[in-house]
Design brief:
Layout lengths: L14 E5 L2 E4 L4 H4 L8 H4 L21 E5 L12 E5 H10 L4 E2 L7
Antiparallel strand pairs: 1-2, 3-4, 3-5
């Protein structure tokens, strides 16, 4: 039987490798080992909610997964609602290509 993860203490630990028929385990689960957190993103903790439309181009969608939250000043620690913008995937690519200073915050899924 596998031990539980030392970080989240919920999931079983992940397989690290197999050698000569014996299984060696990690001390954490796959979820924690890859850096995913079960906690809310920092912008959500401060009460910001993704919109159903892009703040840059106005694109609208019923699916919030199409949108990302960006920090206008580039400071990921600044979760002031005036600094946070919801933009679509197309505008995300345009921002990167244009070299804008906006930065995407909390690269993890919403829960």
């Amino acid at each position: 039987m596998r031990n539980t993860c030392k970080k989240c203490q919920q999931r079983p630990v992940a397989v690290n490798y197999r050698k000569e028929g014996k299984i060696y385990y990690r001390s954490t689960c796959d979820h924690c080992a890859r850096g995913f957190l079960t906690d809310k993103p920092s912008w959500a903790k401060f009460g910001y909610k993704k919109r159903n439309s892009c703040d840059k181009c106005g694109f609208k969608s019923l699916h919030k997964e199409v949108f990302n939250v960006f920090h206008v000043d580039g400071n990921l620690l600044n979760a002031n609602p005036a600094n946070l913008k919801t933009i679509c995937a197309n505008c995300s690519v345009v921002l990167r290509k244009e070299g804008g200073k906006w930065r995407q915050g909390d690269l993890r899924p919403d829960f």
